[in-house]
Amino acid sequence: MNIVVLRRKKGCTGLVTLCHKKLALLMVGFLVAMPAALLYTGYELGKSHMQANPDDLTLAVQAELDTQRLQLAEVTQKAEENLNALALRLGKLQAHVIRLDALGSRLTNMAKLDKGEFDFESPPAQGGPVADLQQSSMMQVPDFVAALNDLSAQLDDRNKQLSVLETMIMNRNLQAEVMPTGRPIARGWLSSYFGMRTDPFSGRRVHHAGVDFAGKLGSDVVAVAAGVVTFSGRRSGYGNLVEINHGNGYMTRYGHNLKNLVNVGQTIKKGELIAKMGTTGRSTGPHVHFEVIVNGRHVDPKRYIHASAK
Description:
Layout: E1 2-7, E2 11-17, H1 20-52, H2 54-110, H3 141-178, E3 189-192, E4 195-198, E5 205-208, E6 211-214, E7 220-222, E8 227-235, E9 239-247, E10 250-260, E11 267-268, E12 273-277, E13 287-294, E14 297-299, H4 302-307
Antiparallel strand pairs: 1-2, 3-6, 4-5, 6-13, 7-12, 8-9, 8-11, 9-10, 10-12, 10-13, 13-14
């Protein structure tokens, strides 16, 4: 390629010949020089602009800082909300544990377990060899939340089971309290059985609706089960009589008392003192006439007396 250099005054002054290699170098130089020139020009313009308006740089930096502060505040708020949720969940679990401890202590006492067999005031005994630390790993947040949910579900389930168990034990204890068992006296001896016997006054064979316990005049007469006094006073043949309704169709009577110590409507506990042994009514000496009535029918008290030994 030939390039002719012309001047207005002198005309053609020279001839420049370019080969392909020189032409390529010229093009590369042009392509490199042009962007460099534009970049330098932009830098100088920006520099002059910043020098002319220094507040623009400050505003840009301040805007970036405000954006970062806002993002940090949002992250902090989310973290606090998550912590508050975990704290609330932990509080509920602690309340569950407190209720379970109280319920377990009641069940331990109700079941009459040996002291120390179940100690709900101390953590359960645990142990084992030292674990391999290389095989252990830190619990991740999702795993922790899942474990927390599982623990909460287990505590709810245990609470329901223990509540059912408590109800069963209470019902069993209540049934034991209201079921007539044992003797109506602390000291004395069985002087007459239930069923057919010779009447001590007429000498005829008659049915005896209860059993008689002979003893010392004025000795204690106690209730064989918990219940409510439905009669306390004199009745023909019985003398001074105490009648107690135990529920579930059970009723007991204590006759020939020297003195009744309870009143109608009074709640009685098992083994509570209700009268003093006497010989009032149709009686030949100090004794207690003891009857057990089930659903309105007299039954042999002997089976209930001996039931206390089981």
